[in-house]
Amino acid sequence: MTVTTDVKLAVAALASGRLCAIPTETVYGLAASAHDATAVARVFRAKSRPLDHPLIVHVASLDQVSNWITDLPEWAQTLAAQVWPGPLTLVGNRTKLASDAITGGQETVAVRIPSHLVAQQVLQELAEQGILGLVAPSANRFGHVSPTSANHVEVDLGQYLEAHGDLILDGGVCEVGLESTIVLATKDQPVILRLGAITAQDIEQVTGKSVLHTVDGVPRVSGALESHYAPRADVILVTDVSQVLSANSGLLALSQISTPVGVHRLAAPNSVEDFAHELYSALRTGDDLNLKTIYVVPPLGTGLAQAITDRLERAAF
């Protein structure tokens, strides 16, 4: 059976060089031992992921970060101590342990500590066996909608995983539902490379540093391509439902926005947090219904609302 709730079975699979999709608070990740070059290569093959697209290393605790990143600025150490475990990824100068396959041939590596209790248990048990990190990009076909449940993973990758003796560890639906904020931590100021639930305001409040959003020569990072997170249906962003032109279509909008006649309501979140939580599931439901078009009224505002709009603009590209 591909899907399991047995953490020890998942740990044994990962320790033996197999792949296992694991839950995190953001999305499900297709995990492999970051020490195992063969297993890392299989992650790329399973996802049809470009080889120069870097991976994020997931570790269990702060004391393991230095195995992968060297010379973190003081502000980044402060941020890590405050936010981790949580939906934040830091990109720093890599150690020798971080291979070119993980970094995409760059001199930086991305690392985070997930807060999901199941992910924490997997990482801690592996650390006791000397495996000090897992690569875990989203457990879906490259460029497709990220998975926020074990069922989503099974739809995208189940056939491949079953054929190769790999596993999906079911830890329920992801709480945040949006990929981690990625922050470059090689400079005197934080630079956000991917928006997420940890906002610029959060970072500035913790570090006392102004956050930059654009600088020259930043490294490549996961999920930053112009076209990404895309369902089969066309995604069209609108400002109100009067712009919904097709009856046989889907709508995703906050609950106070009404649904036009003949349109499938894919989700009606009550808050920006709910919107993030339900976003990918709603896009996948549109595909399940074989809709040609999904209209979305993005939430207004800064912070998490901006991160949601970022994902939607890439899905619509």
Q: What does this 3D model show about the protein?
A:
The chain is an alpha/beta fold. It folds into two domains: 3-207, DHBP synthase; 234-316, Rossmann fold (3-Layer(aba) Sandwich), CATH 3.40.50. 31% of the residues lie in helices and 17% in strands. It is built from nine helices and 15 strands. The chain has helices at residues 7-15, 37-47, 74-83, 100-103, 117-128, 150-163, 200-207, 272-288, 304-316; strands spanning 3-4, 20-22, 29-33, 56-58, 69-70, 88-94, 108-112, 134-135, 167-169, 181-184, 191-194, 234-237, 250-252, 264-267, 293-296. Strands 1, 2, 3, 4, 5, 6, 7, 8, 9, 10 and 11 form an eleven-stranded mixed β-sheet that branches. Strands 12-15-13-14 form a four-stranded parallel β-sheet. A hairpin with a 6-residue loop joins β10 and β11 (191-194). α1 (7-15) packs across α5 (117-128).
N→C terminal distance = 37 Å
> What string gives the helices and strands in order?
EHEEHEEHEHEHEHEEEHEEEHEH
CATH class of the largest domain: Alpha Beta
Low-confidence stretches: none
What class would the helix/strand composition place it in? alpha/beta
Under CATH, the topology of the largest domain is which? DHBP synthase
Gyration radius, rounded: 19 Å
Principal-axis shape equals: globular
